[in-house]
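[step 3/7] fold_predict: job queued, chain A
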Amino acid sequence: MALPKIKDIKYFLIPVVLIVVLAVCETYPLYGRFPYPLSWDIWYHMRIVENFSNGYFTFDPVSFGPVGRIHTYPPLFHILLLGLYKILNLGGLSIMDAARIMPAILFPLSAISTFLLINKFYGKEVGLLSSFFVLVIPVSLDRGIIASPQSLALVLIPLGFLTYLLGLKERKYLYASGILSSAIFYTHGLSFMVFFISIILFTFLVYLSKREVKIQNFFIFTLITIIVSSPWIIQLLMHGVASNIPYGGIFKLTFYPVKLGYITMALSIPGAVFLILRKKEEDLMLLSWGTIAFLLSRNYITSLDLLPFRFIEFLAYPLAFYSSFAIFEFAKEKRKEAVFAAIIGIMLISSFPAAEYVSKVKPMLGAEEYSAFSYLNENSIKDNFTVASSWFTSPMLGKVSELKTVEGGYASGSWDYVKRSQDIKALYSGNFSTVDTYKTKYAYIGPREAAEFKNSENYLNASSIDKLYSTGKASLYIFWGGNYK
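[step 4/7] structure written:
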């Protein structure tokens, strides 16, 4: 087994072009429709990129004001975004433009990497259909239209599985798999969990089904991962590995077909059964991927509550393959015309939810909020002060206003995030005793704060705090110093 040679590239050209065209049609129009990136967390990542530009690689001076915090988010995505920004900036585009364009790059790449994995072991047709499903499954599209570290990890994960499987026969690919594993670790922690635990389960399943011990391969792969990842492992052990784990969010089983698509879920079950019956190494690898993603999506049952809803996004990729594999297994020895018509019909029906979703999606930052943040940028007192807001608003407010926030993006990346969260909640409940603790000069109330902190505006209006700015949805208050009622 080996990767395709240069002379075989023409074999991949048509499917790759089709994947790119569909993915770009889903993502790039959003760049022209909205002036802001779609997600909330990309604002945090943009600010970290600015930190990198200013020489701050291990310290985040703008989150958790006024003193900042050790940087504990993996750096690879930020390095990639910084590189894209530097290139686009040559044409006068901003970091925000880079963040808005990035989905049109990462989403097709994730589908292409999926195609490369599936094509190697199951053929071009199954690979192309799998990639199509990746691009239209609702929860996969939900991730694909935003720029995030997980989007980059979903490009790397299929390549990691591909090189690991090839490495079982040729050692050089095993080294490549270890490097890709490290790249995933440097990109996104939850993605690394899915990838690495899937490899562990695969090793176990190979032993159960074939009585073959692949422990040497796994040891080499793990050793390379640890060696290459060691700088970031040390960083986390020293400054926040425990606090860097996010929690929250549950999807009921009834949401799975809604998020993963009714057709693809229905087809994935016989597809998985066919793979179990075959028991080839590639089958066991893809079954391991789906099994681990599903189990992690149910981890709240064991009281972990480790973002179970997020793991459904990882489940979309192996499920896309199971569905495609089932279709071609059912189509064996059937009339080609009927099979072709059935596949086209399935693709069209599966496209409708994706098209509707893209037509309705909106950024999480509205014009009024952006205007309030801009006002703060232009009229704020320039000193080492902080702004109070919800954790959700914080990265957007901080990036646009260029001020420090009490709760920075990814609040769990600091040991005192629980206390800061409690102090912010107390402030919006009328207890201003911690204003001086964080040198808080401004408090913001927008839709998120109004929903999260009930009656917060009433508490602030009833105090001696002055309202600095107000629109229908956004208000800014200023603390002048002294005692507040």
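[step 5/7] annotate
The mean pLDDT is 85.
The chain has two domains: 6-35+102-360, 367-478.
exit 0
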